[in-house]
Specification:
Rossmann fold; alpha/beta; elongated; 2 domains
Length: 256
């Protein structure tokens, strides 16, 4: 049966055949054929985009189009034929994450010694994770498990001068732009992050400009999609750098 849904799209002109996406696709939907990554069957692709953060060439995105519906039973049969164990990926974030082909996108936790000799900065960084872009963060990154998240519009760190000390202490940062980037991809990617990592709470930091409120809607929809209830703080930053508004709420279904 075909339906209109989100599915992976591969730009073969950008693809260099490194194979990182094929390794990252836990459903086995991607294979390297004639030196290029190919989606071998629509029924194997769940459209969540775990492979996107693994691509060093930016050759993989998602699109909404008519496609065969995702079929979990077909995926399990496909993996069994390959000698891969279905479901073995479910807690992969608890193990060491394999390196990316691109060093700039390797998931890592950042440990710092807060001493004068360890930094030339007047105010030390509080950043605890890398990468930070929603597009690049692997949903199975170890630092996401049990995390307290800050999901911030990327302009906020420039507008609010005390961003690190106010928002990052003891938290994991994800950033993006709801106006310039793919909102549908953000929603599915964040639902995957929240659904698989027992996230404790979220603070959304966004600008007062109208388009930036889209980040609030994206995060709220992602929480609801997981069926969980996650405490949510919404912090609106003014273009002059002040906190304009801060509210707290519970979104989604109650946790069992």
């Amino acid at each position: 049966m075909r339906a209109r849904r989100t599915i992976v799209k591969i730009d073969e002109d950008k693809c260099n055949g490194c194979g990182q996406c094929a390794e990252a696709c836990v459903e086995g939907a991607i294979a390297i054929v004639d030196g290029k990554a190919r989606l071998i069957s629509e029924v194997y692709c769940d459209g969540l985009g775990a492979c996107i953060g693994e691509c060093p060439q930016g050759a993989i995105t998602t699109e909404v189009r008519e496609a065969d519906e995702f079929n979990q039973a077909a995926v399990e049969e496909h993996l069994a034929r390959q000698g891969r164990q279905p479901g073995a990926h479910q807690h992969a974030h608890k193990a060491a994450h394999p390196p990316f082909a691109c060093p700039s996108a390797t998931a890592r936790s950042l440990e710092r010694e807060m001493t004068p000799a360890a930094t030339h900065q007047a105010i030390p960084s509080h950043l605890t994770n890398w990468p930070v872009q929603i597009m690049l963060v692997p949903p199975t990154a170890p630092y996401l498990w049990g995390a307290r998240l800050v999901i911030a519009a990327d302009c906020t760190a420039f507008a609010y001068s005390d961003f690190h000390r106010q928002f990052l202490d003891g938290r994991v940062l994800l950033v993006g732009c709801p106006k310039l980037d793919d909102a549908a991809f953000y929603r599915t990617k964040l639902a995957q992050v929240l659904g698989g990592n027992d996230v404790q709470d979220i603070e959304v930091v966004y600008m007062e400009v109208p388009c930036c409120s889209g980040l609030v809607r994206i995060v709220t929809d992602a929480i609801k999609e997981t069926g969980q209830q996650i405490p949510l703080t919404l912090t609106k930053i003014g273009i002059r750098g002040e906190v304009k508004e801060r509210t707290r709420e519970e979104v989604g279904a109650k946790r069992e």
